[in-house]
Amino acid sequence: MADGAWPRLYSCYKCQNHICCHDDIVSKSFQAESGRAFLFSHAINVVQGPKEDRRLITGLHTVADVHCSDCGEVLGWKYVKAYEQLQKYKEGKFVIAKFKIVKANW
Ligand SMILES: [Zn+2]
């Protein structure tokens, strides 16, 4: 949090539940099936679904869908494990679809 200012947050587009902080964005150039997505180092108020192996453009990953803890909407997924060395930085991070979140506190 910079200079005691309120963090700029993103909320669930359905129920306004706070999901992630602008400061935690690792990358804005992610592509999900549904369109643009952001990679976040943290997410809050989300529930993790069952793990599954998915073969993505960047190789095999173990991922888990993440749901809003309030309304249950699927917001994106978490990278649980990356098998390719170059993709390891994504482990433990969250991909959230851009259209599923709205700005709060900006
Ligand atoms: Zn929600």
TrEMBL record:
Domain (Yippee): residue spans on this chain: 8-105
Keyword Metal-binding: yes
InterPro entries attached to this UniProt entry: Yippee, Yippee/Mis18/Cereblon, Yippee_fam
Pfam families for this protein: Yippee-Mis18
Molecular functions (GO terms): metal ion binding
Superkingdom of source: Eukaryota
Keywords attached to this entry: Metal-binding, Zinc
Similarity comment text for this entry: Belongs to the yippee family.
UniProt name for this protein: Protein yippee-like
Organism: Rosa chinensis
